[in-house]
Design brief:
Pfam families: Zn_ribbon_21 (PF14255). The chain contains no helices and 5 strands. By secondary structure, the protein is mainly β.
Length: 62
């Protein structure tokens, strides 16, 4: 099951929308390129198992 969530690029600060695979667990991390500046962000995804609310933190890769 996939949901969408927003995060802010660690480089340019622009908001991005990403798909989150909820079946991947309540804590996930992966690299995704910013849709605006194309730089790689490490995304740290947390999913509340009761409400399925998604929170994402991003940081620079490298």
């Amino acid at each position: 099951m996939q949901n969408t969530a927003e995060y802010y690029c660690a480089y340019c600060g622009e908001e991005n929308t990403t798909f989150v695979d909820i079946s991947g667990g309540s804590q996930q991390s992966y690299v995704e390129d910013c849709q605006v500046c194309c730089r790689p962000n490490i995304l740290y995804v947390r999913i509340d198992e009761e409400t399925l609310e998604i929170e994402i933190d991003s940081e620079y890769e490298g």
